[in-house]
Write a structure and sequence with these properties.
The protein has one domain. The chain contains 3 helices and no strands. By secondary structure, the chain is mainly α. The longest helix is centred in the middle third of the chain and has 18 residues.
């Protein structure tokens, strides 16, 4: 089998090293993803939406006056 697939490759590109790190630490990435998803679920209720487009205009514009 090719040395590249055995993990014995001496010269790996940076992208291959990142991919190998993600695969080796996949449980940590799963936990991180789940933690961020839970944070997003709970923090989405704290987000305010401003539908009033006039509030973005300066006071001196004709549209606002």
């Amino acid at each position: 089998m090719n040395d590249r697939y055995n993990g014995n490759s001496e010269k790996q590109s940076p992208l291959e090293r990142v991919a190998a790190f993600i695969v080796d630490k996949r449980k940590a990435f799963y936990l991180l993803y789940i933690g961020v998803a839970i944070f997003c679920i709970f923090s989405s209720g704290r987000t305010r939406i401003n539908d009033d487009l006039i509030s973005y205009l300066p006071d001196s514009t004709e549209t606002r006056q």
